[in-house]
# Entry
Amino acid sequence: MKKLILSLSLLAAFSSANAQTYATNWTATDCNSVSHTLFNTLDSGKIIVFIWVMPCGSCVNGAKAAYNAVQSFATSHPGKVRMYMADDLGDATCSYLQSWVTSNSIGSLSNMTIFSNAGNVIDENDFGGTGMPHTIVMSGTDHKIYYNKKNSATNDQPGITAAINSALATVGVPEVTGSADFTVLPNPATDVVTIDGMKNISRIEVVSVSGQAVRSEKIGAGKTTVQVSLSGLAAGIYLVKATDLNGKTSIQKIVKQ
# Structure
């Protein structure tokens, strides 16, 4: 009998874990009367940080952690990472939710998308069960979930930020075809990479997956070997673009650990 109970418990745990691996699709209208279909947004390359709130006092810190994590990417990845917030059961009005956000200084309403969740169309149970608050990070055409925590465990801005970085490393990365005219070593790298093999390098750029140049260095002497610092960059995938004195550009994909 004990073996049976243990087996059932393990099966339930396994099923719960599987339910949290990939998102369930939904279509809902936000508080600005705009319709959203989750999979369409994820398929377009966006990363969604989604939080259910009651709303309640115990939800405030989790909501602030989610908001601050999303905003930390506003400059480096404009429009790429979005925050969605919904009432847990769909029984709070939009005005009540907006007032709760404002009165608790959670963040700017213009930087988040709020759903009253009428009819509970965005069902928490489709994402691993209930908890207040409940935060998930999801992205990609496979609709993968990178972060899924509930209750006080959501007071975790570093964890949410790390999950966003993991998602950024796998979505929206341009494909690099053909052979490059230089090598990048080491790759993966943690701090400094060496660009070698391309003649008369005049400029080096490190570009994020969203297409933004996060490092740019002019090489005055037209060198063939150049070192580039990755210090301060978030972990993820980047493109290194080397341009020679004739304006020819070659690209290599690198991984920052």
